Each structure stands twice: as C-alpha cells, then as structure tokens.
C-alpha cells in the first residue's frame, strides 16, 4: 500500500468501476422484499450546492440495504424546475442585455432546453463525484415524455372527478417575474410604511395603499361599531382625485374598530379579503394595476368630456410603477385637501415573492385549482393509521397541521418553461376542453373546431408531486418497488413537496407513495448562519471534495447531526474527517504488515467487542439512526480498534488473523459512510474472494 491515501487517484477510478460493473442496478427477486428510494430531483439549472450533498443520508441507507442483500433501487432524476429555471435563465439573458420578451414562446423554450441540457450533465457528474450509488440506467427528467404523459393523465382524472376546476380569483402575482404563485410560495416580511389618513366623504380612512383608491367599490364597517351603524346600506358621494364617485357602506364583522378610524375601503381587485366581500355584495372587480405592476388608467382616459384637470392627473399616473405613482397621488391628495395626516410609524406584514423579493400584487386572474380537502383528508387518515411514519416523529404533527390548513391549490403558472396545461378554450362558447395531452379536434360543449390552448404551464410542485409513481415508468418497476421505502429530504420542503406527494400519491394510486419520511435539517455555516452568496459563507461541496475527498465531506455531514436538526458545517470539520480517512488507511497498512502470531490472549475479547459493534450498527441503521451510527463507528474504530487493539497487537497479544478479520468487518461497517477509501482498502486486503466491497455482504455476528 502507498504510504498515504490520495482521493484524487482513487475516487474517479472506483466510481467508474462501480457504474460500468452495473453494481447500482438491482436484481428483482420476488422472494425478497425490495428497498427503494427516489432521489429528490435537483434543479437542472445550476451546480449542486452543499445542501444537495445531504443526499449522503440516502446513499448510506442504499448501500446498507444493498449489502444486506435486499434488491435495492436508488433512482436518479432532475427537475425542470419551471419558474426557478426560467428565473435563472432570465438572469443569464439580462447579462447579455436581453429579456424573455425578446423571444417568441417556441424560441425561448428551445433556448432554455439547451441551457438546461448543458447544466444537467454537469450536475449529474457532480453527483457521481460525491459517490452517490444511483442507478443511472433509470435516470429520469421531469420533462421526459413518459413523465409528461403521467402528469397529463393525472390532471385529466382530477378534472373528471371534479377535483380540478377553473376559477377567476385573486392570485399572488409577482409583477417582476410575471407569474402567479400558490399561498405557500409567498414570503411574508415585516415592513414600515406610511399610513395615509384620507377623507372619504363624511369619513376618514386609514390606508397604506392610496394607489388602489381608484378602484374602491365600497366602504366597510363593523356592524357592532356604533359610530357607523347608521350608515350601513347607504350610498354616499365620495370626492376622489378624479372626481366624485358613489360608494355603498357595507357590514363586515372582520373590520377592526380599533385600527385606524374603524372604517375600511373595499377594493375587490387588489385584496383577497375585499375580493370575498365583493362576491358577497356583488361588487365590481376592476384592477387599477396591471400585470407588469404599472398603473392602468386607460379605462378613465377612454371616456369623453373629462375635466382637463382630471385627465392631466390620469395621464400623469398612467403607465407608471406603483412606487413612482404613489407619491404623485399623495401630493395631489394634499392639493385637494383630502389628505388628513400621515403616520410614518406603521408596521405591517406584506407578501413578497419568495425568489426575487418583489412585493406580491393580488390580481384577478383565471387559473386552474386543485380542490384539496378530499385529498388532505385521505392523507391525514393514512398518517393516523401509521401507513406512513415520520423521522423525527415531531414532523408528523407538523405535516397534519399543514394538511388541515391548506387552501385550494393554484397550479397554473405564467411561465414558458414547463409542462403546458392540456386544456383548450373554445373561441365560440368559451368552454374548456381538458385532455390527457392530445389536441382535441373539437369543443366538447358546442363541437366548434376553433380552440385555443391555455398558455400557462403547471406549477412544478404539481408535476414533482407525482414523482414517486411518474418515475417508475416500467410497469414491472412500479409493481415491485412501489410504494417506495423512504422519502428523504429537507424539512423545509415538507409542505411544498412531501405533503403534496402524499396527497396526490394516495389519491391517484390508492396507496401511500412511501412508507417512511426522513427529514434532515439545513446545512449552515460554522456560526450557525444560513449560507448565502451575498454573505460569502457558502461552502462549495465540489471544492471540498477536491481538497479533502468525497468521504471526508460525506462523513462530516452526518457526524454529530441528528435527523431534523440544522447543523453547522465548517472546513475544519471536513478536514477532521479527512484525517479519519487517513487513520483508516494507516491502520490498514499496519495490520497488513503485522507478523503472523498464531494466537493472542486478547483475541476473544476483540471478537466479542466486534460482535457488539456489528449489533449496534445494524440496530441503528435499521432504525434510521444515521448520525448515531456514524458517531458509533467513528469512535469504535478510532478509540477501540486503533487506540486499544492495535496497541495490544504491538505487544503480541492479538493474532494477525483476528486483527485482519476485525479490520474487514470494520471496513464493511464504514463502507456506507465512506465508500471510496473503504473500497480502495478492500482491494488491497489479503482475501480469498475478489468481489468489490460495494456488493459484499453486511457483517453478521
């Protein structure tokens, strides 16, 4: 053996041996119970980050069950990540002085496809570098034709069952990124904004959004508020910036009499609560802000005989972003004597785009929705019946809390990149025809042949929510490996992805999509802060592999970190695990070089302790105690095998055979955690058989 272990000389060669040898591909055996995990598909638009390196938890499970002799499948894939990928590509375009609006739909889609294809290949090779033993023969992309066929069929089934419907309501719209989002994708932040007190006829209204006053349709008061009770039902003349309008006073028990002046303006086109009031009182829903976040006064400017003063104002506001138009309006309110006062200390929570931080604009738009109540009920029932279990157990309560509070799910996205929704609107009767992907020849309602396909694409979570059954494309794979054994992912996407996979999987396949949900924590920097490029504290996993080897990074990620807990990862910790890999290598060199001793006084003691080691590791891995198993084998090998028994062997108290036998067992126990150095050592041990370690059997007592 070489004096030192060099990962750069071993890792690529070993992985190529594993992959070309077909050792990642399971052999089905009807007499054996399979073990299967589907890789949470990384976005195919960028390099891996250190969070993706947490896939090591899955690889440990996979390698352990493979060694146990279970038919073991770890299926890889990549997510087209509709909105996120288009967002990344638009940043790429911006560097070239271009935008998505410079291209027609087909050209933009093709260009993003080529961009993704290049990045996807890089990402998959990075997974290889981390030693992940994925069955690449089953590699899946979320835009593969078979996956699209599955997602379309699911959409059609849900539509036929009345669980998918189309409705016009306010959506969470990002005017910068040009798409709506579900409620889960809105990030609420606390912000200080001016609170404007404005005269509305006989009242004073407090509002943070004076720009929406042009589409106010009513005034709302709490029916128990004695100050305003007599006004309920009355229609009042209200002077505004563009003349006088009529507004009715309506009752609303949700109005807080203690906020502002206790009376609220109602703008159904720009506030979700007001939208519901609008439906209740049959109020008009007319937006004043368009889908690019600009003020739209075309409705006013198209009128005849407008007062020149008001026309000038409308022209001044028209086409401007809200942030620019608002101060202009405030100055005009002052000029007209309508601004009573401004409270500069108002603090409130506002919705922002989770990706770019733009303030979300509630806007009326027709979208496709999933009726979630029937799906969530089935899912909660399955959890209560223990058909699916959570590790750590505390996340079971979290999952049920989310499931019981979900709103109907908006699955329409105004992106080009993604699966275009298979629904066609009739140009004659305006009815919608939904198919399983095929283009309809005529309208299902009136038989007209003039149909136009919806331009929207599916929310990525809708397609990836079908990942467990959409990926097992061969019927024999589905019949054998479904439901899968474990879904392992970060706890931060429990509601976004895990709950939705359970909802869709249970309804569409009549069984849970996986039996165990294992949730790992977030990887933070050495100070416990979230990693971000702006902070400059990001750890590049591939750089760490270059410096210290994949085994060191893998072991550092699971050592001392329980399931569901965030961890602080430092380069020092990774360096420490590189030192452990060297310790394993040096211990092996010593044992191989030992002189033969026929027997030793401590042989039985080592054998007995070794059995305890095997028993403990087996129990911990069976119970998904990944970190505890890593801690145990680390300390057992370093503190017991090396510090105690190697030292005893130097005194002639242990035979070489027993030391070698114990070393072989430890190399096997370490293999799921540190596969490269153990495979390299395995090939250098004086053994009778020549099979690689990856398919060697798990030690038995």
Structural write-up:
The structure is a single chain. The chain has 701 residues and is α/β, with parallel strands linked by helices. Helices cover 40% and strands 19% of the residues. The strands form 9 sheets. Strands 6-5-14-16 form a 4-stranded antiparallel beta sheet. α18 packs antiparallel against α21 and α19 packs antiparallel against α20 (626-650). The longest helix is centred in the first third of the chain and has 25 residues, at 105-129. The protein is elongated, with a radius of gyration of 31 Å. The model has no long low-confidence stretch (mean pLDDT 95).
The pLDDT mean sits at 95
Q: Indicate the percent of residues in helices.
A: 40-55%
Widest sheet: strand order? 6-5-14-16
The biggest sheet, with number of strands, parallel, antiparallel or mixed sense and barrel status, is: 4 strands, antiparallel
Measured by DSSP, the beta-strand proportion falls in 15-25%
Poorly predicted runs: none
Q: Rg from C-alpha positions?
A: 31 Å
Distance between the termini: 29 Å
Q: Based on helices, strands and strand pairing, what is the structural class?
A: alpha/beta
Shape: elongated
Number of helices: 22
């Amino acid at each position: 053996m070489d004096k030192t272990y060099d990962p750069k000389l071993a890792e690529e060669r070993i992985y190529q041996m594993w992959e070309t040898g077909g050792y990642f591909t399971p052999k089905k055996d009807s007499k054996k119970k399979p073990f299967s995990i589907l890789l949470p598909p990384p976005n195919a638009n960028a390099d891996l980050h250190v969070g993706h390196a947490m896939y090591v938890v899955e690889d440990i499970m996979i390698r352990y069950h493979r060694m146990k002799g279970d038919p073991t499948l770890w299926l890889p894939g990549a997510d087209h990540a509709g909105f996120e990928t288009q967002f990344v590509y638009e940043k790429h375009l911006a560097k070239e002085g271009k935008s998505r609006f410079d291209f027609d739909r087909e050209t933009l889609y093709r260009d993003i496809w080529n961009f993704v294809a290049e990045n996807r290949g890089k990402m998959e090779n990075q997974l290889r570098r981390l030693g992940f033993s994925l069955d690449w023969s089953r590699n899946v992309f979320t835009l593969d034709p078979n996956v699209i066929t599955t997602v379309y069929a699911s959409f059609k089934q849900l539509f036929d069952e009345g669980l998918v419907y189309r409705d016009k309501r306010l959506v969470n719209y990002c005017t910068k990124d040009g798409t709506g989002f579900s409620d889960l994708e809105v990030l609420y932040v606390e912000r200080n904004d001016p609170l404007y007190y404005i005269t509305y006829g006989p009242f004073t209204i407090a509002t943070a959004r004076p720009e929406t006053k042009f589409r106010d349709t009513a005034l709302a008061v709490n029916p128990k508020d004695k100050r305003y009770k007599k006004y309920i039902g009355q229609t009042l003349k209200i002077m505004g910036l563009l003349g006088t309008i009529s507004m009715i006073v309506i009752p609303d028990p949700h109005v807080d009499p203690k906020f502002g002046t206790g009376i609220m303006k109602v703008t159904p086109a720009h506030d979700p609560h007001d939208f519901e009031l609008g439906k209740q009182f049959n109020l008009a829903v007319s937006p004043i802000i368009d889908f690019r976040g600009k003020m739209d006064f075309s409705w006013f400017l198209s009128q005849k005989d407008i007062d020149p003063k008001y026309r000038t104002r409308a022209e001044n506001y028209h086409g401007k972003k809200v942030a620019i138009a608002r101060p202009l309006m405030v100055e005009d309110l002052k000029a007209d004597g309508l601004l009573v006062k401004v409270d500069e200390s108002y603090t409130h929570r506002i919705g922002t785009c989770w990706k770019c931080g733009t303030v979300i604009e509630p806007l009326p738009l027709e979208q496709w929705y999933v009726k979630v109540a029937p799906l969530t009920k089935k899912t909660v029932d399955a959890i209560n019946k223990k058909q699916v279990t959570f590790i750590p157990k505390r996340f079971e309560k979290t999952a049920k809390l989310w499931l019981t509070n979900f709103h109907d799910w908006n699955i329409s996205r105004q992106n080009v990149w993604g699966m275009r929704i298979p629904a066609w609107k009739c140009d004659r009767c305006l009815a919608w025809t939904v198919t399983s992907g095929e283009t309809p020849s005529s309208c299902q309602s009136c038989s007209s042949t003039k149909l136009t396909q919806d331009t929207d694409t599916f929310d990525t979570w809708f397609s990836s929510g079908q990942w467990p059954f959409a990926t097992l494309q061969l019927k024999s794979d589905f019949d054998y490996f479904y439901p899968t054994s474990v879904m392992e992912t970060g706890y931060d996407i429990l509601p976004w992805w895990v709950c939705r996979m359970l909802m869709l999987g249970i309804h569409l396949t009549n069984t849970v999509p996986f039996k165990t949900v294992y949730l790992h924590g977030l990887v933070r920097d050495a100070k416990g802060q979230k990693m971000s490029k702006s902070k400059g504290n990001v750890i590049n996993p591939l750089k760490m592999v270059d410096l210290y080897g994949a085994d060191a990074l893998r072991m550092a990620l699971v050592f001392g970190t329980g399931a569901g807990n965030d961890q602080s990862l430092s380069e020092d910790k990774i360096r420490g695990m590189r030192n452990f890999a060297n310790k394993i290598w040096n211990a092996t060199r010593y044992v191989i070089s030992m002189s033969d001793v026929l027997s030793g006084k401590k042989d039985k003691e080592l054998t007995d302790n070794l059995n305890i080691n095997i028993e403990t590791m087996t129990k911990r891995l069976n119970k998904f105690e990944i970190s505890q198993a890593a801690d145990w084998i680390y300390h057992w090998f370093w503190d017991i095998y090396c510090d105690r028994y190697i030292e005893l062997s130097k005194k002639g108290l242990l035979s070489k055979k027993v030391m070698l036998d114990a070393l072989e067992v430890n190399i096997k126990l370490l293999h799921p955690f540190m596969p490269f150095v153990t495979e390299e050592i395995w090939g250098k041990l004086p053994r009778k058989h020549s099979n690689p370690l990856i398919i060697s059997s798990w030690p038995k007592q």
